[in-house]
Amino acid sequence: MSVFDAAKQAAQGLVQGVVQGAMEKLVPLAPDSWIPGGVPDPLIARKHGLIGKPVSRLDGVHKVSGTAAFAAEYRFDGMVYAALVYSTIPKGRIAAIDSAQAEAAPGVVLVMTHHNAPRLNPMPMFGSSPSAVGATDLPIMQDGVIHWNGQPVVCVLAETQEQADHAASLVHVTFDETPAVTSLAEAQANGVEQGQFMGAPLLDEVGDAEAAFAAAPHRVDQTYRTPRHNHNPIEPHAATLAWIGDRLVIHDASQMVTQQAQNMAQIFGLDPEQVHLTSPYVGGGFGSKGLWNHQVIGAAAAKLAGRPVRIALSREGVYRVVGGRAITQQRVAIGAKADGTFDALIHTGLSTMPPHGTMPEPFILGSQAMYGADTMLLKVEVGRMDTLANTFMRAPGEAVGTFALESAIDELADSLGIDPVELRIRNEPEKDPIKGTPFSSRHIVEAWRTGADRFGWADRPETPGSRRDGEWHVGMGCAMGTYPYYRMPGAEARITLTREGDTVRAKVEIAAAEMGMGTATTTAIVAAERLGLPLEQVDIAYGDSAIPGAIMAGGSQQTAAIGAAVIAAHNALVEELLKLAGNDSPLSGASADEVGSEAGGLARLDNPDAKETYVSILARAQRGDLSVTKAGSAPLETMHWSMHSYSALFCEVRVNAVTGEVRVSRFLGSFDCGRILNPKTALSQFRGGIIMGLGMALMEETQLDERNGRIANASMAEYHLPVHLDVPEIDVIWTDIPDPHAPMGAHGIGEIGITGVAAAVANAIYNATGKRIRDLPITLDKLL
Amino acid sequence: MSLFVNGAQVPAPTDPRVSLLDHLREGLHLTGTKKGCNQGACGACTVLVDGERILSCLALAVQFDGRQITTIEGLASEEGLHPLQAAFIEHDGFQCGYCTPGQICSAIGMAAEAQRGVPSHVTDDLGGTITLTREEIQERMSGNLCRCGAHNGIVEAIQAVLVEGVPA
Ligand code: FES
Ligand code: FES
Fold it and tell me: 2Fe-2S ferredoxin-type domain location, by residue (chain B) (predicted)?
């Protein structure tokens, strides 16, 4: 992607010193010695390269200049604008649609309803195939059936957005309503079922936990509640799309680029190659930037009207069309001995999803790997409600599950009179508590100790409610988080070396998404290091379905998936280069595993003086370029080891004794996430997660009107997010200990940040006030 | 009617319903100014009008006859990026970058307000000169939401340029 050229030049000044330092100390890098379960990725041993040095974002110049083009900022000639009309009932049928006035309104090109929409295949529902990413498989404008309050029922296309919006307001839809389940109590009364996640029941049993709990000398047993949440990326969901011949071109905002293109092809009965989807910039996603109704409706309307379409959801539209995180009600019961070690850990409860949904909020995932207990029972049940399908939101499961678990641990520590940090360390498991596999790299105790030191944990008031500063109660709390290391199969990397005079450029193409996590920059750093090239000679392309392979920016696994694919492609590149090098090369006779990349070429591992540059190899072979594409190895490492990111979180709050207002005055995250590749962007990932956790703790709640299943606060004025004044300076430290079993030694960092934060805040509030709030968000009315 | 955007005279919209934000983005193809909520709640659409920050989603384009509008596209000069733009990169004051143009324009408008002595909710001395403390910056920037959580980097970038006067 050439958009990086300008950014590269700007970044060059910042990184050049680092690069030169790196080039001086180079040792050859064996390309293929990292195998799952085998020898660690040789990049781990590199101490002087780019990895671990702070590098500014390569796309930064575009983002601060307004030249980064987001989905709703592409244009096609003859493009028209879409506006949607939404159902106002939760369940039933459309009785009648009166669109005469709308059709006659100025500028209107099309009014599409279920009567005239093209016939479409259902959306491939998550779990139905490896590439399926739909939250449901409900028909989209194919019949008059209503499944949730807010379902799009009419799409208006007009020459301008103003005309489309006005015409949409002139459409009159009447409904025949049928009884719907729109309250949690009703859903429970109708009976709950065992929750399934990724094809497996959300149920883990080790021994007889209920019996062990009943017999334990010390016990806590509490219920915790978390509300619905919405992702609220600042960029509303949008697509700009056109049918060009028999091809569909979509400029989308997507964190699953290839999969969405494939799914759209399936919905419209096309071959995958007929859909081209790009998404170079995504204005935040957090799990929400996937395939929803609007892209399908936009493409259908474009087809029907024969015009390119911009469908940009209003903020309210995002709440109506794009699902969020489901509500939970969780029981945590812990039985412990006097020394605090656990006899029983029980974490069970309820979440909801619609009849057409696939995803119960899996709030026990964190509990699977946090503590050793003699017996365990973890279980998610699900009740059905007639709402929009809920979906993945940053740390699905862990974010809300750790609120319950880590609050309960604090309650136990309090009742036992044991320091909560100490209590957690006493319950460190020796191996994976459920699977029994060894931990690949777990240094949470070190993270606890260094974090406690730095935060001044020893100064915590021992008695809750005992410290005052004027009218403010002051208190400290802590909590822990874990988030699994995943690496999804399907990732491929294409590396192309191009000779430019007496130098070479490398282009690395990956079908990844960049929503601001720093993926593009980190990928460039890792690729440069692996290829033995300076950063400014490496270009990264992503966010385009034409790139081979499929990678998802989800599950905090993208960096690992890319890393392994680049390792594989690098191996293949070395093999091809050796073939080209032939007998006249100093490398003659060497096999691929006997050479490594260094200083813009290859060198023998056993004799680094036997080397040849890429340029020289390509030139002698009279090649202008060389390109290889390779898929990453199968993710076997997670079968051998229990692999997770870990956090130890410390929070200080001030709670106003008069108003109940809570201010977070200090926060420290101490992380153990393997090797940190780019400290600058990693810091932002950690902080961003923590800040979303502060929102979850103190203010965020999607309010469902239980009378009619409609989201009542579908706006950014009424769904409160943390603003500048809510956010203290957040201190972040990390162990930086590489995991020998992960590419680059790195674990994911996108979701661990939010995990545990709400509990750390709630525990600090308890320490400050003596009030234990078990119901998020902790708004001031709950503290009065 | 004449509008001036980043120093150039530009056409006004023919439809009086068009917001300044939509006119910039759809009429003039200046998409650097972002739409986050279209209802005055997020600050992503912040632009400068004669040096004052406004929410362009809450303004009709036709209100601005003869006024000088500056957007993110108009901040860099021949010499390169505006110091705040460079500082946002240096301090990683963004992740996705979608709130960024609004944050930068807002910070420039805020600096002018402080210079004029306009107090904020956290100002102690309502008649005195304003020092842009960390808390003042946080309070005055609270109308610009950032869901990625780049708040610390944003405040650092602003402090570096507006308070310490150190272009990155
Ligand atoms: S778009 Fe104007 S304030 Fe949100
Ligand atoms: S950088 Fe993404 S919203 Fe601020």
Answer: 1-75
